[in-house]
Amino acid sequence: MLKFRAIIEETFREARARKTLVGFFFLSCILIIITFFVFQNDTVLSAMDESAEHRPEDMAAALLSTTVLDVMWMAIAWILYVFALCLGIFASASFITSMMEKGAIDLLLSKPVPRWLYILGRYTGAAIIMFLEVTFFVLGMWVVVSLSVGRWNMGFPMSIVHIMLGFASLYSVVVLVSVLSRSNLLAIIAGFGIFFIAFLLAIGRFGSEIVDTGEKGIFGYITDVLYYVFPQSIDMGTNMANGIIGKDIKWTPIFLNLGLTVSYLTMSVMAFKKKEF
Asked: What are the tens digits of pLDDT across the range 9-33?
């Protein structure tokens, strides 16, 4: 346990040395400040006040007035989600490759520490760093927007959970690519590529649900296979949006992403064990 903790602490020290923590914190503060000034605009505030306080008589108009605030919170959450995942992948991809650099890896392997502990320790350290940054980012945006519009969406802070689930699965792929290639750039490209593939798969599956012909072609089968092979970070974002507006979330993508995370980390550990330096 002490060795595991030491590896996590080393990850934090590296993040501090590379200005990862400071950079994420600085960008988060800038976005929070910009959001604060945006919501101080009289036009924005009046639109929010009308949507929140207006009480139309017919049900259709009532639903419409509620949707205005829902769309606002969902839009903010999606912006946070994409920003956090992309910046998180970019900032944390080097945690594995830096460990495998000549000199550093020689020193690590000379210590009585099993190889699998290095992978899990670095992964856990990156996840903790990401959790701290995301928590600050989400809660900061939540407080700023809520104070500005005078309405507190109690489902918004749960975005932290969904963002972390999306990051955990996506970062497990980055770790595997980092171990196999020892290339920081390739790992980053893989992370962004998987995120883009998940976006295309989400569009494809959504289109299939709308236009259901009752028959599944070759494209449909390929889509299904890819869906269960790659982490579905877009589904985590959809669950996040559903939670914000009070709808039920889908548990299948959550369990699927957790399973894929464990699978990719297992492959990373096995590859790291067999790798010669």
From this structure: 888 888 888 777 777 788 888 888 8
- pTM of structure: 0.83
With residues binned 3-state (H G I as helix, E B as strand, rest as coil), the percentages for the chain, rounded to 5, are 85, 0, 15
Domain total for the chain?
1
Distance from C-alpha of 166 to C-alpha of 189, rounded to nearest angstrom = 17
Residues 6+ apart with CB under 8 A from 193: none
What is the per-residue pLDDT across 215-253, written as a single tens digit (0 to 9) for each? Answer: 666 766 777 787 788 888 888 888 888 888 888 888 888
What secondary structure does DSSP assign to 113-169, as a single string? --HHHHHHHHHHHHHHHHHHHHHHHHHHHHHHHHHHHT---TTGGGHHHHHHHHHHH
Which residues form the domain of 228?
A: 2-274
CA-based max dimension of the chain: 74
